[in-house]
Specification:
Layout: H1 7-20, H2 28-37, H3 45-61, H4 66-75, H5 83-102
């Protein structure tokens, strides 16, 4: 689902992975985390925003991925989006960073 051309399907895949992190005893999310984190700057800003908002859930249940998530958020380049979306994505990143650092 993460590789779909359809942004709606990509978003669904991101949501499913995040909400199943709690039960991931086989480290399946660990195997796809790099692919997941690429969606922080998805071509569709709405998908990117959903991805960013879901990252604290993954960090909560997968603490071993916390540093990877924080690093990806810090490196995210929001300039790929139109001016109208840049500030929204930036604010989402800042909020996610704060939430993850509290864990």
């Amino acid at each position: 689902m993460l590789d779909s051309d359809n942004s709606y399907i990509r978003t669904r895949g991101l949501i499913l992975l995040a909400y199943n992190a709690k039960w991931d005893k086989d480290y399946k999310i660990d195997e796809v985390i790099d692919k997941y984190l690429k969606h922080i700057t998805d071509v569709k800003p709405i998908t990117a925003r959903q991805c960013i908002k879901l990252l604290p859930i993954i960090a909560k249940y997968k603490p071993e991925l916390k540093n990877d998530i924080l690093s990806a958020l810090h490196k995210a380049d929001v300039s790929v989006y139109d001016d109208s979306m840049q500030s929204l994505v930036y604010k989402d990143i800042q909020k996610a960073l704060k939430e993850i650092q509290k864990l």
